[in-house]
C-alpha cells in the first residue's frame, strides 16, 4: 500500500516537474501534452470505474453462488438424513420379529394335570363333535 502511494506521488511530482520544464521551453507543445494527459486520465478513470464494477459484480456473484451452495448443502444433508432413516427402517424390517411371549415358555403343567387336560379335551371334543353331527 505504501509503495502504491509513494509511486503515485512520485509520478505526480515527475509529471508536474516535466510539465513545468516543457512549458518553459515549448509553450504550444505543453498545451497539446496537457490535453493528451487529461484525455489519458479520463480514460484511466473510466477504465477504473469499469474495473471496480466488474470486481463488484464478480464478488456479488461469488457471494450468491456461495449462498446457493450453502442451501444445496442443507438439501444434501436433509437427503442424507432421510436416506439414513430409510436404511434404518429397512434394517429393522429385515430382522425377525421377536417371539410373542407364551405361557408355555414359563409354565409346564405337571404329569397329573396333563392327564386331566387330555381327558377333558376328549370329553369336550366328543360333545362338540356330537352337537355338530346333530345340527348338520
List keywords for this structure.
single chain; 136 residues; mainly alpha; rod-shaped
Helix content: over 70%
Helix vs. strand class: mainly alpha
Q: State the helix count.
A: 3
Overall, the morphology is rod-shaped
Low-confidence stretches: none
Give me the count of strands: 0
Intertermini distance: 111 Å
Mean pLDDT: 80
Tell me the series of helices and strands, N- to C-terminal: HHH
- What amount of the residues lies in strands? under 5%
The biggest sheet, with number of strands, parallel, antiparallel or mixed sense and barrel status, is: none
Radius of gyration: 50 Å
What's the short version?
This protein has 3 helices and no strands. The mean pLDDT is 80.
Notes on the protein architecture:
The chain has a domain at about 10-95. It is rod-shaped and about 140 Å long. The protein has about 140 residues and is mainly α. The model has no long low-confidence stretch (mean pLDDT about 80). Helix 1 (about 1-25) runs antiparallel to helix 2 (about 25-95). It has 3 helices and no strands.
Amino acid at each position: 500500500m505504501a509503495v502504491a502511494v509513494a509511486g503515485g506521488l512520485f509520478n505526480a511530482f515527475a509529471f508536474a516537474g516535466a510539465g513545468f520544464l516543457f512549458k518553459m521551453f515549448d509553450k504550444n507543445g505543453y498545451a497539446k501534452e496537457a490535453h493528451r494527459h487529461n484525455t489519458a486520465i479520463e480514460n484511466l478513470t473510466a477504465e477504473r470505474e469499469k474495473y471496480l464494477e466488474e470486481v463488484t459484480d464478480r464478488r456479488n456473484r461469488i457471494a450468491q453462488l456461495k449462498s446457493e451452495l450453502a442451501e444445496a448443502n442443507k438439501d444434501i444433508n436433509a437427503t442424507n438424513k432421510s436416506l439414513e432413516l430409510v436404511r434404518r427402517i429397512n434394517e429393522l424390517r429385515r430382522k425377525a420379529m421377536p417371539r410373542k411371549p407364551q405361557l408355555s415358555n414359563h409354565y409346564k403343567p405337571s404329569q397329573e394335570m396333563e392327564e386331566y387336560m387330555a381327558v377333558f379335551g376328549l370329553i369336550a371334543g366328543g360333545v362338540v363333535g356330537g352337537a355338530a353331527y346333530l345340527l348338520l
